[in-house]
Amino acid sequence: MLEGKLLQLYNEMIAVARSNVYNKSDAQDAVQEAWVRMLANRGSLREADKLNAWAKVITANAARSINLRAKRIYPVDASEFADNAGTSRDEQAIMLEIRELLESVDPRTRALLLYKFYFGYKDQEIAEAWKLPVGTIKARIHRAKRRLQQWMSN
Hints:
Elements: H1 2-20, H2 24-40, H3 51-70, H4 79-85, H5 89-104, H6 107-118, H7 123-130, H8 134-153
Helix pairs in contact: 1-2, 1-3, 2-3, 6-8, 7-8
């Protein structure tokens, strides 16, 4: 049973890494680095039921670190993603545009959008984690979505 949960977590981490790096090898490196960070900092996980979200955030950060070290900004061959992720070239173009938009917002807003729409946290959960009123979270999400929509229309 534990083996199945770990395998599921590993697959989810691979998916996060693949969405943040540009080739399969870097994704595997990011997941390996994430596991090392998780084991080294296991005491910082306060709630065991948040393990998956915690692991995904660490994986995304590890992937970004790999990109920075490699000084990569955009993939050389986006078709690798399309073939491996089962997405069409149109979907890949949309994913790259979304990535560019997310990179254009401040880190706090980016984290908020990722928690809400990528990791699937509810507004109340984000508010509790950030120690802010839920209304503030809803307003920030609304403003961020509106700002992204304006940028997309320009």
